[in-house]
Amino acid sequence: xxxxxxxxSASIVNNFVLSRFLGICPFIGVSRKLDTxxxxxxxxxFVMGVAGIVTWIIQYAVLNPLxxxxxxxxxxxxxxxxxxxxxxxxxxKTSPDLxxxxxxxxxxxxxxCAVLGAAILNIQNGFSFLKMLIFTIxxxxxxxxxxxxxxxxxxxxEYSDIPFYFRGLPITLITAGILSLAFMGFSxxxx
Amino acid sequence: xxxxxxxxxIWKNNGVFKQVLGTCPTLAVTTSVKNGLGMGLATTxxxxxxxxxxxxxxxxxPSKVRIPVYIVVIASFVTIVDLxxxxxxxxxxxxxxxxxxxxxVNCIILGxxxxxxxxxxxxxxxxxxxxxxxxxxxxxxxxGGVREILGNGSILGFNLFGSSFSPAIAMIMPPGAFxxxxxxxxxxxxxxxxxxx
Lengths: 191, 197
Fold this sequence. Notes:
The complex is a heterodimer. By secondary structure, chain A is mostly helical. Chain A is built from nine helices and no strands.
């Protein structure tokens, strides 16, 4: 039960994009079309899951025993950057189809603060390995959920008659605000 | 060395309003002017230092590994800021929390390192760092000001409207950040599109 609540809390109640403000750049940048949004979401779920596991192991197997906690930021971002590079190469070799659809998103993920944010939150909250796994996957699913939902709304907005000065970024941000307002309805569901 | 480089950074090339970069910290920490200012100045410090170092090492670093090198430079300065703030500004450090280590992935900083400092001299890079940093601080303070006035009825902690004023609490909650920035963007696009005619 505790684990289910953790999953719901990470994915919906404390949604990464709409209430923690992590990963706003891809949220606004690649949400114009539904299929690119789905591609980006899959890439983020994958990288976030692997990065969460690797950084958790590094923190507890290397940094803590050697008292190198202050190197956390540098090590984590290096791990994520090289991991993204590695994943890109592996996917390119093993599955050209997947690479064609995810390829362009992979380099962008290095500077997606959701990935580094999740890795640091795992450590700050002192999660055990299993909890870390659930939290990371929950957050990633929440990110994907928000991104896909939002791109659906944006596709509708394309065909609407928007006041001239609101076109483009202003209406996008205000729509995100209303979506975030809707998500606030979930607050209090899980502590 | 051109002073115009600096002034361009503050408004014409403003990272948040014109290039729409670094939106995560912009939205997350601007619940009050004070938090916005603190985050802005921390980012400015990292931006100035990383710009200087990147422009100093631009000829030594092979172009294939330049991005990881820049990230390490930025991450080192972020670690310095993180530890310094924890020691001297502990309260602010607690509020900004997660977003201090996340300065590393602020696209404005990597963008300036790659787009400006790796092509220009030390003096120009220093001025560019100051300009872009102050522009970022300005953007965060404006959004922080709007949200603090509407959501809390105060500015920099001073109560503005007396006790009978009931603030719109949603403005200091997450939705207020999106809506506040959306309306600021609307005002900017209004004046820009009018000027162009």
